[in-house]
Amino acid sequence: MKKFILLVFPFLLNAQVGIGTANPAADLHVAGNTSTIRIQSLDAVNSPVHNDGVKPSHAYVTNTGDITITPSAANGSGPGGTIAPLNFLLSQNNFIPDGATNKGVIINNPTTTTRTSGQLAKIDFSSPSSALIEVKYSISALLSRTDLNISQTAFNDISARVYKIYFCIDINNNGLSASELSKKYGLNAQSYSSDDQGILGYAYTNGHGYSTIPAGNHALYFFAETIDGVSKYTSVGFGGVQDLLKIRIYN
Fold it and tell me: Which residue among 48, 93, 188, 226 sits deepest, i.e. has the most Cβ atoms within 10 Å of its Cβ?
């Protein structure tokens, strides 16, 4: 008569699996103070669009329980997930050159004009997909009635000055077109006036703006404009003591 031996392995009777532990406390329990889990399909080689290999990527869980780093699959396998992940594309201090005199980019408005503008900085950035971007900036400004490249002097002419800061978006980073140059984002202005005695000090301007962009390489151009009275001289140094830029993406 033939005899059959039934072997029953303990792990088949226990729905919980332990790695590094004989007493798992969950369906999958990876024990150890330095334990890690690796999903190779999500690394920088296999998913370079959403994992650049430099900064950590956000992970999402689909409606079927799958782990993914693709934002479009946030609620399933199809495009356009209902979750709008938030990612910082860029966070940069001192994005405006300090200049030889450490007063930032200096824009002079001579006595022969009442309005002068100039470029402060150009910032390149890339977006992995079509998205809504938010740009926030903070820029210091130092105002003088003499050329800041040579000296700084407080105002005493009982007159007002105005300066404006804004940025334009160069889609595809191929140079600002006339249309792109006409769209001023994050426009903010400050005014300065004095009696017969003025003081020297820094003013601070904070601004932000939004726009939709396609996937690809793009650039931000920051500009400033100064306005004063007839026969008045105004010199403004932008970003000499502080300037901060943050770009974040909603995709």
Answer: 226
